[in-house]
Input
Amino acid sequence: MADKETDRSKQLSTLAVRTGHHRTAEQEHSEPLFMTSSFVFDNAEQAAARFSYAEPGNVYSRFTNPTVQAFEERLAVMEGGDACMATSSGMAAIMTVCLATLKAGDHVVAAKAMFGATKVLFDQLLAKFDVDITFVDMTDLSAWQEAMQTNTRLVFFETPTNPLMEIADIQSISDIAHQYNSEILVVVDNCFCTPVLQRPLSLGADIVIHSATKLIDGQGRCIGGAIVASRELVDDCLFPFMRTAGPSLSPFNAWVFLKGLETLSLRVNHSSDNALQLAQWLEQQVGIERVYYPSLDSHPQQALANKQQSKGGSIVSFVLSGGQEAAWQLINNTKLLSITANLGDAKTTITHPATTTHARWSEQDKLEAGIVPGLVRISVGLEAIEDIQEDLRF
Ligand SMILES: *Cc1c(COP(=O)(O)O)cnc(C)c1O
Output
């Protein structure tokens, strides 16, 4: 939990390098890594005061750790939120929000198109605790409206979605939920855009989720996640859960992410520019049926994307008319691109969703969702765009 005062009036790129570090008596310039599981007390009285929160301060790194707090404070400020709580993975962030805010008998409205593990968590894990879920087509505002119930507690979506780059209208969905019941918490997984391109809290959302594993790390090293929310929600609801249940972020990973935030703006803007160029170039190639990228003129929600995101993001998907055979051939012919399902890396990655990330879905579900055999997803990195294009031979 980050407490100290930060000048929030500065621009994002300044906040990303300057906030969160509270210099120690050693006068270090770079952010220190506090690789310690516990903290010592001056005497028994202080130990008792720290444990009871009568005196603020560190006790044990499952609860708080200064390096983790530096990362939390920096990300909170960048998202325009009061407070942040880091978690051991992106999924741990989602689980923490669910288990800390929901009880048996509650209801969740979520988008149909979501990260695979998130969908399984909602569908199978929450169901075991008697939490009821309604999945909606997230581009249909009337479906969100109709799904609200008196016991609805959470609304959850990602935008843009993986891999088809559909856009959810953050402001309108937040308004629908809050007008129905001001107590409903609107949760946005902002992993694909990061605060560099999109700030959901400024559009009415209550909670932002991150998989820091992706663009925040940006170099494919560490697993981690974060939740940005109001001070009240973090202190009264999320932190007590974390302290007791323990999906805490390791200080080492927090330190890597803290340094990742410093270059986030440069990396996300550059990979987005690369991705737009790649998407426009792909539209000109023979053998490509369709390209999915938010800021393309051919994207049905281009206006909404341009309104809520400053750029299209790093992910481009496209459908080859030759189906799976053509998709696999394209993937197998690459020499530079990495064949892996991770995304948001400095290295460009290429994936065949139908047989990897979405392989567990039924044929029917895949086809309905547009995960066709000819679909290829590219997470564009920081290489020269000419070299990425040259590696894709059609
Ligand atoms: C990867 C991902 C997650 C899960 O994050 P982990 O760090 O792998 O647990 C959640 N949401 C989205 C959109 C993701 O891409």
About this structure: The chain has a mean pLDDT of 95.
